[in-house]
Amino acid sequence: MTKTIHFTKMHGAGNDYIYVDTLRNDIPHPEEAAIKWSAAHTGIGSDGLVLIGASPIPEADFSMRIFNADGSEAMMCGNASRCIGKYLYEKGLTFKRTIRLLTLSGIKVLHLSVDDIYNKVESVMVDMLEPVLCNPAQLALNNGSMTEGSIEVEGRTFTGTFVCMGNPHFVVFTDNIKQMDVARWGSLLEHHPAFPERCNIEFAQLTGDNILRTRVWERGSGITMACGTGACATAVAAALTKRCARKSAIVMDGGTLEIEWNESDNHIYMTGPAAFVFEGDIEL
Known about the structure:
By secondary structure, the protein is an alpha+beta fold. Helix content is about 15%, strand content about 45%.
């Protein structure tokens, strides 16, 4: 017997996911649903599936689980968290403008900027907490840390910086991002033995004062229009290597995210848009 599930498709700077309210719809096998529904030609088409649920702990208001297009579960997604903030507020599930969201990488605090005339969320700032620069479980080199370190794949050496934003990122700076074969090198670097849990890969080029043009290869999804945690990791890597100040604009294929690495609390604050695309019903 088939079951019909109501879904909403949203995007943050072009990073698009399928959102399901699990307070109303049970998804017993989200890994399978993510693969089936994310397919471009036979499903809805997306970068993955996001489940919005109740929080099992009192410290958070809601919870988020995210599954990539290949069915693997991700720790966190900055773009998805902004979309959840808009979803919760505009669907009337909360009237709070500061929302505590439980993820696999901790509680993220969402600050909603609301147009009071139309009662619409214009943008969301997310406290992404502190970046982690040393994680031996995710980087099997240099005791788990790497700033401007080198990795070789298929005879080519890439110099990059490892940053963990709840999920692992390797940020490579280049002088000509237009000529970078993101699909080829991103896939090879994602599966490099240096990254035991695989890795998200960012290729970035400085194009102006504190402006970085960035393209993303997401672990489990491939090339995506944007990545919130990737934007944060890029900003951190740029600040560490003196390419940018602690505030920078990360220009991705789908739009621009504003990132601040705050000196007072060492937290990363990410601000950007979120948008509804369409909604409907699909068989589970």
